[in-house]
Specification:
The complex is a heterodimer of chains A (266) and B (71).
Chain A (H helix, E strand, L loop, with lengths): L2 E6 L7 H14 L4 E5 L7 H4 L10 H6 L4 H4 L1 E2 L6 E4 L12 H12 L4 E5 L6 H8 L3 E6 L3 H14 L6 E9 L1 H6 L5 H8 L3 E6 L2 H9 L9 H13 L8 H21 L1
Parallel strand pairs in A: 1-5, 1-6, 2-4, 2-5, 6-7, 7-8
Antiparallel strand pairs in A: 3-4
Helix pairs in contact in A: 1-11, 5-6, 11-12
Chain B lengths: L2 H5 L4 H17 L4 H18 L8 E4 L4 E4 L1
Antiparallel strand pairs in B: 1-2
The chains are: A alpha/beta (266), B mainly alpha (71).
Chain lengths: 266, 71
């Protein structure tokens, strides 16, 4: 049975696209057939985060309007067998696609793919309604900041009005040093406020910027964010992975790098 | 950041959590903080009409499922 998962947040810039790209790649690495759909019509970005921007011929709007066949618009990621991208249109707006058309599209994709991941645009208007329409599972991405959490809460409320069986949370860009000082809400605090099961927490990690610069995923690598995304992928597939593994691994890494630094400084 | 923030004992993470808790109550029931204050004031006025309670010491908490009155 294939799953249609929407990755959403309400607020922009919290890491939806990075999260989508890494979950998609991670699922493909574990042998699943995955299609990522960029539903942000007018502001497409998933292609460039995945390093597939030079391969676009047709897009989501072309498929919906019947300008091409679905398989013509799907870009196969040659680095990862089983990973496909359906890019968004850059020169149109959100009204070019309707929620009903999205339901039809996801139904069609279910025949070929194990996972259909929808990268949702920011906001709660048409773009959100399109992305959510065909989904049966939702991942809400937030950061430990008041604005992002407030918007996430609103999104969780709205998701409740759709036929979505499972809503889970990813807390992105957490910082161990700030949490230790009490200057950042802890992951537990965020979960407590939003009352949604936690799928994972991702460290604010400079390797995210570096990977995005290259158009490469983090998942499969040994950076703190890469490990976090790998664990998230395993949890999506139903594996029981303890939630703070990445924190422990990260603190060990910090511990050793501080020692190393001290030695080098003499 | 003011000097007040530097010397206050409360961690900014806790400040954020407390602010959010209050904010989300009004967001969730789609009611502005001003309107919430008005509701609380009217509830306390009604209670004080029938019971002898010091209004200054009364506290009313509104959440998604219930309204608590403490005194």
């Amino acid at each position: 049975m294939s799953e249609v998962i929407v990755i959403t947040s309400g607020k922009g810039g919290v890491g939806k696209t990075t999260t989508s790209a890494n979950i998609g790649t991670g699922l493909a690495l574990s042998g699943k057939k995955v299609v990522l759909i960029d539903t942000d019509i007018g502001l497409r970005n998933l292609d460039v985060v995945m390093g597939l921007e030079n391969r676009i011929v047709y897009n989501l709007v072309d498929v919906v309007e019947g300008n091409c066949r679905l398989r013509q618009a799907l870009i196969k990621d040659k680095r990862y067998p089983g990973l496909y991208l359906l890019p968004s249109a850059q020169t149109r707006d959100k009204t070019a696609v309707s929620p009903n058309q999205m339901i039809k599209l996801t139904e069609q994709l279910k025949e070929q793919f194990d996972y259909i991941l929808l990268d949702c645009p920011a906001g709660i208007e048409r773009g959100f309604q399109n992305a959510v329409a065909g989904a049966n599972r939702a991942i809400v991405v937030t950061t430990p900041e008041v604005s992002a959490i407030r918007d996430a809460d609103r999104i969780i409320g709205l998701l409740g009005t759709y036929e979505i069986g499972k809503i889970e949370l990813i807390v992105n860009r957490i910082r161990a040093d700030m949490m230790k000082k009490g200057d950042m809400m802890s992951v537990d605090d965020v979960v407590d406020i939003l009352s949604v099961p936690l799928l994972g927490a991702v460290y604010d990690d400079e390797s995210v910027v570096i990977a995005t610069n290259h158009g490469e995923p983090l998942v499969g690598g040994d950076s703190p964010a890469g490990i976090a995304f790998s664990n998230i992928v395993k949890r999506i597939e139903g594996e029981q992975i303890p939630l703070m593994t990445e924190e422990k691994e990260h603190s060990i890494r910090i511990f050793f790098s501080t020692i190393l630094q001290k030695i080098q400084e003499g | 950041m003011s000097i007040l923030h530097i010397f206050s004992k409360k961690k900014s993470g806790d400040v954020a959590k407390d602010r959010l808790k209050i904010l989300l109550i009004s967001d969730r029931i789609n009611c502005s903080p001003e309107l919430m204050e008005q509701i609380k004031a009217e509830i306390s006025a009604v209670i004080c009409k029938y019971m002898q309670i010091d209004r200054e010491k009364m506290e009313i908490q509104v959440s998604k499922r219930k309204i608590n009155v403490f005194w």
